[in-house]
Amino acid sequence: MGFLSDRLARVKPSPTIAMTTRAGDLRASGRDIIGLSAGEPDFDTPEHIRQAAKNAIDAGHTRYTAVDGTLSLKQAICGKFARENGLDYAPSQITVGTGGKQILFNALLATLNPGDEVIIPAPYWVSYPDMVLLAGGTPVVVPCGIDDGFRLTPQALEAAITPRTKWLILNSPSNPSGAGYGRDHMQALTDLLLRHPDIWVLSDDIYEHLIFDDFRFTTPAQVEPRLKDRVLTMNGVSKAYAMTGWRIGYGAGPEPLIKAMAKLQSQSTSNPCSISQYAAEAALNGPQDYIASSRKAFQRRRDLVVAGLNACPGIDCPTPQGAFYVYPSIRDLLGKTSPAGASIDSDEDFCTALLEETGVAVVFGAAFGLSPHFRISYATSDDQLKDAMNRIRGFCEACS
Questions:
Q1: Rounded distance, CA 262 to CA 270, Å?
Q2: Could you point out which of 13, 46, 272, 273 has its C-alpha 20 to 30 Å from the C-alpha of 243?
Q3: What phi and psi, each to the nearest 5 degrees, are found at residue 381?
Q4: Beta pairing partners, 158
Q5: What is the CA radius of gyration of the chain?
Q6: Per the confidence metrics, is the pTM higher than 0.85?
Q7: pLDDT greater than 90 at residue 48
């Protein structure tokens, strides 16, 4: 009998973390590495949020809190939903966890039984399928290709639904593609879901504020109020306020689900960091000007990267509506040979050769469930991005 749990055999380590780790190892060995694999804003957390955390320490707010968040933070979250999304929630319908990932995992673990299915549009965030598997469910991956703008269509959703479908996971704007669901597209999906009353929606809105051009963010419970009682809307402070390390995510949904998630959290991590909760409260209640300034910087970087990649032979890079990722196709590079002689038979081959030969770290598309693509995170400096685009272009021009 083996020592480790059989459930670990169902999942794999995060490919994004693996690529970031490999890039770090090469950098430590003296290589000049440009890391474009991590999904993390490179800006500092705004000053008033940092000050709120210091004030919390000085005030002695360093003890246990309620299991799934302080009342004052939950009230701030309710205010955010009312102000920005037109959604009315009570604090009893709010849960706070150690990052958005815990909110998602708690929801799945609290609701899935063996054989229950979760529809996941691909490309997807790498953790969705593995969280479903760890919770005992079955991921049902629906490819949403470049011709569909990397978005789930009502027809594809209808075809994926079975009597065992329990959840649909939607992420807009999306990691890894940056694709966003506009109101009309979201309405078409919610219209379909109204005809399937046993399916719940897990809406991952973590990139809500990172939107560009004339795109307008919408979330399912906002678009179709009749779905609200079977929607869990997840969000957090990590991306919008450059607070990835503070580890605060939150969710809003029906009270029975929120209570079940709190019960689960009470026997796992218990409360999120008390100091981080006070910082998150300041983020939600305080000045919001940081969001506009960071969005402007990310849009400039997006345009730089899209133009740079589309100048590379064999790469086709659509322009995303949000987040800080691009998801270009390398279909025209398959079957070629890298400048150093490596065969490029897959997107993983391409990314491995690119890292080893140019020092640019990106993540291969198979990790996100849709090939042949790769993901770039442009949450780094303009100079680094320009250097990376030049290296990628040189690599592609030398492929034969």
A1: 8
A2: 13
A3: -70, 155
A4: none
A5: 21
A6: yes
A7: yes
